[in-house]
Amino acid sequence: MAMELTVQIVTPYGEVFQGEVQSCTLPGTEGGFQVLPLHADLVSLLDIGSIKIQINDQTTRFLATSGGYCEVKDNVLKIIVESAEFAEKIDLKRAEAARKRAEQRLKSTQDDIDIPRARLALARALNRIRVAQFVNSLN
Amino acid sequence: MANLREIRKRISSVQSTQQITKAMKMVAAAKLRKAQENILAFRPYAYELRRLIAHLSAMTEDVSQIPLMARRPVEKALLVVVTADRGLCGAFNSNIVRRASERLREYSDTEAELFLVGRKGVEFFHKRPVTVNGQKINFFNELNFNDAVELTDTVLNIYREQQFDRVEFIYNEFKSAIQQNVIVEQFLPFVPDEEIMKSSRQVDFLYEPDKATILNNVIPKHLHVQVWRILLESNAAEQGARMTAMENATDNAEEMIHQLTIFYNRKRQASITTEISEIVSGAEALKES
Lengths: 139, 289
Hints:
The complex is a heterodimer. Chain A is built from two helices and ten strands, in the order ββββββββββαα. Chain A is globular, with a radius of gyration of 16 Å. Chain A has helices at 92-107, 115-138; strands at residues 5-11, 14-21, 23-28, 31-35, 42-46, 49-54, 60-65, 68-73, 76-81, 84-86. The relative contact order of chain A is 0.17. By secondary structure, chain A is of the alpha+beta class. By secondary structure, chain B is of the alpha/beta class. Chain B has a single domain (28-197, 204-244), classed as ATP synthase, F1 complex, gamma subunit (Pyruvate Kinase, Chain: A, domain 1, 3-Layer(aba) Sandwich), CATH 3.40.1380.10. Chain B has helices spanning 2-59, 92-106, 119-125, 145-161, 194-199, 211-288, and strands at residues 76-82, 111-117, 132-136, 166-176, 179-188, 206-208. A five-stranded mixed sheet of chain B has the order 3-2-1-4-5, sandwiched between helices. In chain B, helix 1 (2-59) packs antiparallel against helix 6 and helix 4 packs across helix 6. Chain B starts with a helix and ends with a helix. The A-B interface holds A 10-15, 28-30, 40-45, 68-69, 71-73, 78, 80, 82-83, 114, 117 and B 38, 41-42, 44-46, 48-49, 52, 56, 145, 149, 153, 203-209, 213-214, 217-218, 221, 224-225, 228. Strand 5 of chain A pairs parallel with strand 6 of chain B.
C-alpha cells in the first residue's frame, strides 16, 4: 500500500488546495523536481511555472504559480506562493490582456518604466497562458 | 407664515442628510465585512512565511549576508504614513496625521522624510514644511495584493538607493468596528520574530538553494505580506471608523428631526391659537355693537 503525501497550497488570498495526493511536481528555482511520499525534509524556492498534482491514477491537476517556496516535512508538503490558479480557472482573455500590457510597457521609451517588473509581469502572463493552453489541449 | 415653511424645509433637508448617512453606514458595514474576510483569508500565508523566516534566521549564523537585516545608526529615516483616500470617517485620518507630525518632531535631530499612502495624508501635508519622498493614492477602493507588492517594492527601492537607515509605518490598526489604534511599526531593517526563533526546533532541512539565498528571496515576500496586512488593517479600520461616524450622524439627525418637529408643532399651535382668539374677539366686538 503506497503512502500518501498531504499537499497544502497557501496564497495571500487563502488556501487553494489541500488533500492527499500520490505525487507533486514543482518548478524549483534550481530546476523542476517531483515530491513523492517519504521525501526528505526540504525547503526550496519556487519559480514562475506550473505545479502538477497527481491526486490518484485517474486525476491529475495543474496550477499556474508566480513563485514562492515550498517545505516538505513529515510527509506534508506546504506550498507557499504569491499566487496559484487551477488551469481550468484561468481567464485566458485576462492573461492575454496582461501579456499585451506588459509587452507595451517593455516597448515604450518612457524613462519611468520599471523594466524588471514589466519583465516579471510578462513572464507571469505567459506562464498562465501556457498552463491554460496545455490543459485545454489535454481535454 | 414664512417661519413655519422654513422649519418644514429644514426638517426635510435634515431628513435627506440622514438618508445619505444611513446609506453610507450600510456601505461601510458591507465593506468592513469584506475587509475582515480578506484578513482572515491571508492569515495562514502570513503565518507560514513568518515561521520559515524565523526558522531560517535562527539557523543562519552570519547575518551580514542578508542586506535587509543589517542595522545601522539611524541618520536618515523614512516614515510611511497610511491614511484613507476618503474622509467622513471620524478622527481616522486626523489621528494618523497628528501621530506622524509628532514622530517627525521626535526625529528632529535626524533627517526624516515622508512617504504618503492615501489621498487624505497628501492633502494634509501638501502645504506643510516637510519633505515628501513619494506617494500612492486612490487605490483603497479596489484593494489588491498587487498594490501591496508595488508599494513594498517602491519603498524598498527608496531604502536601497537613497541610503535610508530605517523605515517606519504609521497606520491605524483594526481593533474592532468602534476602535482603532494608531501604530508606529519598524519595517526596515527587518527584524525576525524572536518568539518563533526561540521555539523553532533545531531540525535541519535540505535547502535548495542555500539558506542565505532563500532568506534574501523570502524576506521581500514577507515584506509584501507585512504591507498587505497593514493595508488590510487600515482599510478595515477605515470602514469601521466610517460606520461608527455615520451611525452617530444618523442618530444626531434623528434627534434633530425630533426637536424640529416639536418646535414646528408648537409654532403651528401658537399660530392657530392666535387666529382663533382673533376671530373670537372680532365676533365679540360685533355682538356688542
